[in-house]
Amino acid sequence: MKCETCEECETCDNQPGYRASMQITAVVNQKGGVGKTTTTINLGGALAELGRRVLLIDLDPQGHLTEALQLSEAPDKRNLAGILTGAWTGSVEEIIVPYSTPGSGRLDVIVTTLEMFTVGRELDRLRAREERLDRVLAPLKDLYDHCLIDCPPALDILTDNALTAADGVLIPVQAEDSTLRALRLLLAQIDALESELRRTPLTLHGMVVSMLDRGAGGQARSNIGRSVINALEGLPLPIVATVPRGVPISEAWRYGRTVTDYAPDSEHATEFRTLAAVLDKASA
Ligand SMILES: Nc1ncnc2c1ncn2[C@@H]1O[C@H](COP(=O)(O)OP(=O)(O)O)[C@@H](O)[C@H]1O
Ligand SMILES: [Mg+2]
């Protein structure tokens, strides 16, 4: 994209929205099925629509992000697992797959591979095992504005790598009772990692309430849903977006598209655009 200010370079620090360093956000919650992959894909789409250069990382060995974007798994060795363990020593740029170029932005992906299922065991044997992803991503700092990491549903070494590499976290949650205990465990893990490893604390961007079954007035339909939302609102962690359960999200997933592209006028697309603006501003 051409710089809008000096019109001479591709990207420079005169350009509105240009940041000298990629902001890395871990989309994290050790609970499965809470909307991490959906948030990563659609927030990525909304950021790219804003003109940002966005890299998505499928860190979950189950590979739902790779599958949802209808991308092929990476080949042997020359992949995320290989580069994390040192089995492959090429450049990280070689394992990036272009997905789309909406407007002036860009959406690229580091896809999963079957070896991600065993990478945790291999990382356990290595030095600085929590810092491997941070080192892998370092050469990309000037090539992207945002990197979103789709974390696995576990507080494991892969999630620790994401939290160590990240500048901030987004926590997708559902309006159900088990959410509060999961949040306590996650925040304790972040605290423990911070005191052990990190130089600067992670920015807790907040929670994304996913798959909300809405009733009249846009509130949660069930009593339990409403009481959990009340409890979440009482936490010192903001709710930065609320995404209702809806067909546009499932259909976009089925057709390998982001919801901002597949159903641009849906309330779901609007919600992800609002979230993109929050994240973009927070990291500017
Ligand atoms: N707002 C939504 N409306 C409808 N289906 C959704 C919505 N958000 C997520 N889903 C679906 O719920 C399932 C779990 O979401 P996912 O993002 O994969 O969670 P996680 O990554 O935390 O396991 C997926 O099949 C996804 O398509
Ligand atoms: Mg997932």
Note down, in words, how this protein is organized.
The chain has 284 residues and is of the alpha/beta class. The protein has one domain: Rossmann fold. It contains 11 helices and 8 strands. Strand 7, helix 8 and strand 8 form a beta-alpha-beta unit. Helix 1 crosses helix 11. The relative contact order is 0.18. The N terminus is likely disordered. InterPro entries: AAA_dom, DNA_Partitioning_ATPase, P-loop_NTPase. This is ParA family protein. Pfam families: AAA_31 (PF13614).
CATH class: Alpha Beta
Radius of gyration: 18 Å
CATH topology value: Rossmann fold
- The level of helicity is 25-40%
Q: Please outline the major beta sheet.
A: 8 strands, mixed
Numbering strands along the chain, what is their spatial order in the largest sheet?
A: 3-4-2-5-1-6-7-8
Number of spatially distinct domains: 1
Distance between the termini: 18 Å
How much beta, percentage-wise?
15-25%
Structural class: alpha/beta
Query: CATH homologous superfamily name?
Result: P-loop containing nucleotide triphosphate hydrolases
The distinct bound ligands, ions and cofactors come out as: adenosine-5'-diphosphate, magnesium ion
Anisotropy-based shape: globular
Give the gist of this structure.
The chain has 284 residues and is an alpha/beta fold.
List the helices and strands and how they pair.
Blueprint: E1 23-27, H1 36-49, E2 53-58, H2 64-68, H3 80-85, E3 96-100, E4 106-110, H4 116-124, H5 132-137, E5 146-150, H6 157-165, E6 168-173, H7 178-196, E7 203-212, H8 223-233, E8 239-244, H9 247-254, H10 259-262, H11 267-282
Parallel strand pairs: 1-5, 1-6, 2-4, 2-5, 6-7, 7-8
Antiparallel strand pairs: 3-4
The structure holds adenosine-5'-diphosphate (ADP) and magnesium ion.
The site of magnesium ion has 5 residues, from helix 1.
Pfam families: AAA_31
Domain AAA: 22-198
InterPro entries: AAA_dom, DNA_Partitioning_ATPase, P-loop_NTPase
